[in-house]
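Exercise 7b. Backbone tokens:
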């Protein structure tokens, strides 16, 4: 579970990052899209990069990969 690995501040930053990436996006409510972004945010946090900017950057990278995969697919 996520709460076992991260402190409260990190969990809040992770949620904020996910919300920032997904809001105002046409696919922002799509479960698969959100999951892909969230997984990348979690991987980033697990490496110790837990600042909001770092987590948003990780989420944006996932968004770009997801979009590219959809265009190819």
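Sequence design result:
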């Amino acid at each position: 579970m996520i709460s076992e690995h991260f402190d409260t501040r990190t969990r809040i930053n992770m949620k904020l990052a996910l919300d920032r990436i997904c809001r105002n996006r046409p696919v922002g409510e799509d479960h698969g899209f959100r999951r892909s972004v969230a997984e990348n945010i979690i991987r980033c946090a697990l490496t110790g990069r837990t600042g909001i900017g770092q987590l948003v950057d990780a989420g944006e990278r996932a968004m770009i990969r997801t979009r590219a995969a959809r265009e190819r697919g």
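Instructor comment: Residues 41 and 53 are 11 Å apart (CA to CA). The longest helix spans residues 52-72.
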